[in-house]
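Posting this for the archive.
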Amino acid sequence: MNKLVTVFIIIVISGIAASNIIEKDEQYMESENNISIIKENDNGLTYKNISAKEAKERIDSEKGIILLDVRTPAEYAESHIPESVLLPLDTLNRDVTNVITDKNAVIFIYCRSGRRSITAAEILISLGYTNVYNLGGINSWPFETIK
């Protein structure tokens, strides 16, 4: 009887371990696609992470993408991605609906390192924007910037 219980416990533990490995593989595959869902609000709206490479490809091939820089005016003046719109994080909640009126517009948000862009993405989702992407920080942007 003890051997049967031991075998059962081993089978259960093996199943749990295999399940965790499969889950990690799925997360890895998702990140390999450069886009992953990060945050879902009460209405089921999400924002996604997007790599610099994927963002650049989409910017070059699609019209109407809004590049939203949520840094300070001084940081923006120092360097920014071409054709980006400055809307500092501290005024975003108040001003975004006047600047970006289409809540279905594709929006790529960036800041310096990626912290403020996450906060900005959460704010936009909470306001009902539906196509929000966290590009992260300009520090990781390997393409052209305006200085």
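Residues 1-32 form one domain. The radius of gyration is 20 Å.
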